[in-house]
Specification:
The protein is mostly helical and 144 residues long. The protein has one domain. Helix content is 72%, strand content 3%. It has 5 helices and 2 strands, in the order H-H-H-E-E-H-H. The protein has a two-stranded antiparallel ribbon. Strand 1 and strand 2 form a beta hairpin. The two termini are 28 Å apart.
Length: 144
């Protein structure tokens, strides 16, 4: 995305089975490494010749069920652990949830408007920089 490489013009989304498989894989990886599903969904969709604005919108829409599934997994896996801070439900810390949900709901429309105003090349480069930053953070925490 940072190099703005163009996929083959004939490339399109796979059939229902392919989309289901890719979606399942993206959801599983997102939950396991604690990243938003959009970090994998947007590159996949743009690789399949979906407009980047549509890819970002789709990513935002599917982010909710991915987050719910991941949260349920963190609740289940952390249930009953004594070493968690107060106000935790499993590995989900409720005060953080109370702050994140409303702030995300307020900022999301601004991000959507910005995504439709920026040139596609700029939008792809910004997204690629975010992905590189996430990858660097993950590598740093893995090896540090």
């Amino acid at each position: 995305m940072i190099l703005d490489l163009k996929p083959k013009a004939s490339r399109e989304l796979p059939g229902i089975g392919g989309v289901f498989a890719v979606g399942t894989g993206i959801g599983a990886v997102s939950a396991l490494v604690a990243i938003g599903g959009g970090s994998l969904t947007v590159p996949f969709l743009t690789w399949c010749n979906v407009r980047v604005q549509n890819a970002i919108g789709t990513s935002a829409a599917i982010g909710f069920p991915i987050a719910v599934g991941g949260s349920l997994g963190y609740i289940y896996n952390g249930w009953g652990r004594a070493d968690l801070p107060p106000l935790s439900v499993g590995f989900v810390y409720l005060p953080a949830l109370v702050w994140l949900v409303p702030s995300s709901m307020l900022i999301a429309p601004l991000g959507a408007r910005l995504a439709h105003r920026l040139p596609v090349t700029t939008l792809k480069r910004i997204f690629a920089c975010v992905l590189i930053t996430l990858a660097a953070k993950m590598l740093w925490s893995l090896f540090a």
